[in-house]
Amino acid sequence: MRALKLLLGIASVSLLTACSGAASGPAGGGELGAAPGKDEALTLTVYSKFTSREYDVVTKGLEKIKTRFPNIQIKHEGNQDDDKLTQSIRGGNPPDVAISFFTDNLGAWCSTGSFLDLKPYIDRDQLDLNVIPEAVRSYTEFEGKRCAMPMLADVYGFYYNKDMFAAAGLSAPPKTTSELLEMSKRLTQFNPDGSIKVAGFLPSMPHYSNQAQIWAPNFDAHWLGADGRSNLAGSPEWKAMFEFQKQLIDSYGGPQKVEQFKSGLGDQYSADHAFHRGKIAMMFDGEYRTAFLADQAPEVNYGTAPPPVLDSKPDRYGGAFTTGTIIAIPKGAKNPGASWELVKHMSTDTDTLVELGNGLKNVPSTETALKDPRLEVSEQFREFLTMFSSGKLLPNPTTPIGDAHLKAVNDFAERWQAGNEPNLEEGLRKVDAQINDELAQKSGGK
After folding, report:
1. Where are the alpha helices (DSSP H) in 47-148?
2. What is the rounded radius of gyration, in angstroms, for the C-alpha atoms of the chain?
3. pLDDT the model gives residue 444
4. What is the pLDDT of residue 396?
């Protein structure tokens, strides 16, 4: 579960829409799959994208199902992306359970029937979903259809270098975008030739976790209107977001200087990440960055806080963007009743969620696990738990076009910051038209 998911295009969605229509019932045939008997021997195949150390952590969590069903064997196949998953469903040979980082594709999965409707199982087992925060519940269903459950959540907050703050005479992180702009100016350092040596806050988008979807909640900018259509051009919040981005770019001397600086920065998930190396003083990132810093740059003295918000939206402070890992039963799963038991286990079992949270440094997605004293919480990580419980989380909307709307806005942001979109409102109108055209094409295809 990494921010890399936010950079991917819609290749998975094109495959998803090629699937046949929605399944008629929980197992594709209208019947509810029964839970396996405790003595029943069977193997459940699980696809996920996890690899290396994280694969081992998740496998351990999956195998804890044996405490209830000792004869179930788990075959965990890691490094399986969404394209492979969709191809297996289309080919009639899906895994029993699918774990995905890509919540942005959920609308397409639900609307095509690629994932089974879980509501009948939830109703049968009288599962209380109120233990899951509302924002997390919203990104795991589509148009009232629950075809996935949350396994873990990501919350995107604000990181700042305390030593750099002290050297600049700053004592606390910014709470508003105007404070962020002024602090960025104070923290930025230039080389003798005028090039950027250290950036206070790098506004390049998309880069690292500077994604439109991560910035949007800080401005209270919403993707779709009440009519289900895109109206970015008519939104003061979206305009304020891009105007703020331009102010930041201008404070560095223009897009060329920013691009030159960005080109020399390390990879997002390497030890050469710019924040690790003291090249940027402030940034947005997920809670998982705390684990990267502990492993790759333990010498960095840093703090975390909620992201700064638009000055006119002070009530938004304390909230954040959220997304997360989802777990589901693919259409055509051979043992849907047993699959549901594993899905339920991985999404609601407190012991398992606490262990996964500790091992992966992600936020557990139930209030019970969140408050469990066994959850390992550093000072920096605690801020993300507080944001998660704030009631101010904003996820992406689930749509039948997957992440096409996200890609359209991030592409616009890249053109805008480079100076290739001279008129903000006109450019946003074009983005609205692009998104609405795609929505219209899918609206009759369910």
Report:
1. 52-63, 82-90, 106-112, 119-124, 134-138
2. 22
3. 56
4. 82
**How many angstroms separate the Cα of 112 from the Cα of each of 20, 98, 359, 400, 406?**
7, 16, 34, 9, 20
**CA-based angle 132:58:93, to the nearest 5?**
95
Verify that 108 and 213 share a domain, yes or no.
no
How far is 96 from 339, CA to CA, in rounded Å?
A: 6
- How far apart CA 201 and CA 188 sit, in angstroms, is 8
pTM of the model: 0.84
Backbone conformation region of residue 9, classed left if phi is above 0, alpha if psi is from -120 to 50, else beta: beta
Domain that holds residue 109: 3-154+323-390
Beta strands 363-364; 149-161: pairing state? antiparallel
Task: Indicate if 120 and 167 belong to the same structural domain.
Answer: no
Among candidate residues 321, 356, 379, the one where a domain is terminated: 321
- Nearest 5 degrees, angle CA 147-CA 102-CA 362? 100
pLDDT for res 214: 94
Instruction: Give the β-pairing of 149-161 and 97-100.
Output: unpaired
CA quadruple 325, 330, 336, 340: dihedral, nearest 10: 10
Q: Are residues 194 and 47 part of one domain? A: no
In order of 123, 191, 204, 236, the CA distances from 415 in angstroms are: 48, 27, 11, 20
pLDDT of residue 441: 87
Q: Is residue 13 part of a domain?
A: yes
Mention every residue, 6+ apart, whose C-beta is less than 8 A from residue 98.
46, 47, 48, 85, 115, 327, 328, 329, 330
Mean pLDDT of each 10-residue bin along the chain, 446 residues long: 43 42 43 80 94 91 94 94 87 93 79 90 94 85 89 94 98 97 97 96 91 93 90 95 95 94 90 96 94 92 97 94 92 93 96 93 90 93 91 84 88 94 95 94 62
Neighbours of 66 (CB within 10 A): 12
| Burial of 314: CB neighbours in 10 Å, binned 0-12, 13-18, 19+ | exposed
Is the Cβ–Cβ distance between 113 and 330 less than 8 Å? Answer: no
Distance CA(321)–CA(215), nearest Å, equals: 8
> Distance (Å, rounded) from C-alpha 390 to C-alpha 307?
13
